[in-house]
Amino acid sequence: MSCDVCSLFPPGSLVVVKQGRYAGSVFVTIGIAGTDNDARILIADGRRIKAGKPKKKNARHIERTGVILGEVTRRLERGKALDDGWLCEVIARGGR
Amino acid sequence: MVTLKKPDEIEKMKRAGAVVADVLKLMRDIIRPGIDTMSLDDAASDLISRESATASFKGYKTQGTRSPFPGSICVSINDEVVHGIPDKYRILAEGDIVSVDVGAIYSGYHGDAACTFAVGDSVSPMRAKLIETTREALYIGISHVKPGRTLGDIGHAIEEWILSRGCGVVREYAGHGIGKKMHEAPQVPNYGKAGSGITLRQGLTFCIEPMVVSGDEPVKSASNGWTVLTKDGSDAAHFEHTLLVTEDGVMILTPWE
Prior knowledge:
The complex is a heterodimer of chains A (96) and B (257). Chain A is α+β, with helices and mostly antiparallel strands.
């Protein structure tokens, strides 16, 4: 049974947008929206796209960088809100 | 996290894979015009039970799906790409193509494989070509499996082959790692850049499963929440094997051919 590529992008994944107005920019995934097989990846960077109003992206239109921001993953797992300034900083550090 | 399997785990996966292979061989024997897809599910379920295994798919639930998968196998006809639900009112007709996806758990370890069959003897040349292209894509992918190669090498080779044959690649769904869970890391897309992605190591077990369409690539989901169909109504085919990366190459754990 094939897996949905949305699962390629666990929360906290650093991704590059391939299509749309933010093409070439780096964001972090913060969840999955939608139901059934029409799920979309939620992305934010705390600056252009706030964590409180993430953008829904088709999984085909973003690309993995291979970096998982553990700090973001842990916050999301605990159900804590993401502060936009903090998110900017974490993305800038690239998980280092 | 990617897990490498130990010898005792590999033995269990071989047993699970053998069950899956037996079910696909049975499907090859009983698929004919006039049979309903629930009968295929019943036959598969019986065989899996007789071999002291459990169907992986029955009751399986993924993130975003409303209800657990109701069947023991997935049966997808013509424009259905994957995850078709067995139904006593779905009758196979002469000239159809039907994809059967089977998963089994043995001693806590999974095996997973799929094959697209022609129903009857009068499948159109277009459909026959689609089946052959998809089967070849699977084996081209497998030919790249050995320690040191990357998942990107596999995806790139599969994508290049499918596009060269004038078909489309389904990109929303992918192959996957497999072991104690049916879907483990890593994901194995049927596209990619050569040299990218994780490097294969001995003991890694995963599934390659090209899903190929004869028309445009976009797919949609049916109202049942599971079945994936082509958006333009074109045909789709699906082949899959569970694989083990060995010291110097690959072992197919679901030898249904």
